[in-house]
Amino acid sequence: MKKAPWLNRTVLGVGLASLFSDWSHEIATAAMPAFLATLGVAAAWLGIIEGVSDGLASFAKMGSGYYTDRLQRRKPIAVAGYLATALGTGAFALATNAWHVLFARAGAWLGRGIRTPVRKALLAASVPRSAYGRAFGLERMMDTIGAIIGPVTALFILEATQHNYRTLFVWTLVPGLLAAAVIAFLVKERARAPVKYISFGERLRLLPKQYRKFVAAVALFGAGDFAHTMLILLATQKLTPSIGPAKAASVAVTLYVLHNVCYAGFAFVAGSLADRLPKNRLLAGGYALAGVMTLGIILLPPTLWTMVGVFVLGGIYIAIEETLEDSMCAELVDESHHGMAFGVLATVNGLGDFVSSIAVGLLWSAFSPEVAFGYSAVLFFLGALMIAQVKTPRLA
């Protein structure tokens, strides 16, 4: 019997939607720290905006995952989520206070939360189990190509408009709306039998033991896994004394592009390795690499080359983390419960982002960046030890 090809229109469509959507919101993300600085706010506000948005999105992910397993067609939910993300990101153009940015980001991330488990379930359903690593690796790679184009586009627009942030935010609507269109017209949803109604609690109890151990390890690591906009702020602050604030801001955004190049370049490599090697050990290595990155921030002098190393390691560990978490999740749970499993995983990650971004922002403001990243380092290494203990099924 001939094997079904893993690279099909749905895999390509989901990848393109991720590319366009990340292109859209990474334009805004790259400019957000500098835009907030023009509003007179500091690291604590950035942490609150990122943390609250991710925390709110996490509840949407859980609800969406539970609800969409009961639907015969999931795709319309994904389209609605992409539209909400595009419009919320574009609404940054209307902001005149930090709390306006908070509301716009929260609305965008609410849409992101709704679509995330649906997108992952659509992707997993379109390929054989032996190709989960490659499918999720390709999606992560394309997502990150968007994250590379986004900051470059931000730099171009800012230079062309003499740092007109509102014009920049309006332009995010173009790729954002294209993402929704790709899901609507290119992705083909496979026919499926919806899961019969059972209570939310019972659905949670049906998830297997190894999956629950996996989620506990992800939660521990995630409590330290701060938003990488914090690295943009770190580079800006550390490099300002030597090269001045304007150049430091541009260099920081350029370093973020480098971060995303490393992410894109390693995502498919990580996925390919995941289809051949034990996923738990690969993911443990990625978690440990995050710890090495934070130790570099704490122990090395704040030079340009130190920042280059930090952003490179940050991009590589995120590629391993996101690709391996998704493919492990798909492998540990039966396909009929993928929506719920991806929803729980996304919720745990969202809550981790909520805790970590706020904790790192507050520790940074109250003490120092070194104290803030030291907190993260401890959780990164503990998460690596814990994920290595999760048993994954052997594929034929």
Itemize the secondary structure elements and their pairings.
Elements: H1 9-38, H2 43-68, H3 75-90, H4 98-125, H5 132-160, H6 165-171, H7 173-185, H8 200-206, H9 209-222, H10 229-243, H11 245-274, H12 279-299, H13 304-332, H14 338-366, H15 369-387
Give structural notes.
- The protein has 396 residues and is mostly helical.
- The chain has one domain (9-188, 201-387): Growth Hormone, Chain: A (Up-down Bundle).
- It contains 15 helices and no strands.
- The protein has helices at 9-38, 43-68, 75-90, 98-125, 132-160, 165-171, 173-185, 200-206, 209-222, 229-243, 245-274, 279-299, 304-332, 338-366, 369-387.
- α2 packs antiparallel against α14 (338-366), α9 (209-222) runs parallel beside α14 (338-366) and α11 (245-274) packs parallel to α13 (304-332).
- The chain is globular, with a radius of gyration of 20 Å.
- The protein starts with 8 loop residues before the first helix and ends in a 9-residue tail after the last helix.
- The relative contact order is 0.17.
- The mean pLDDT is 83.
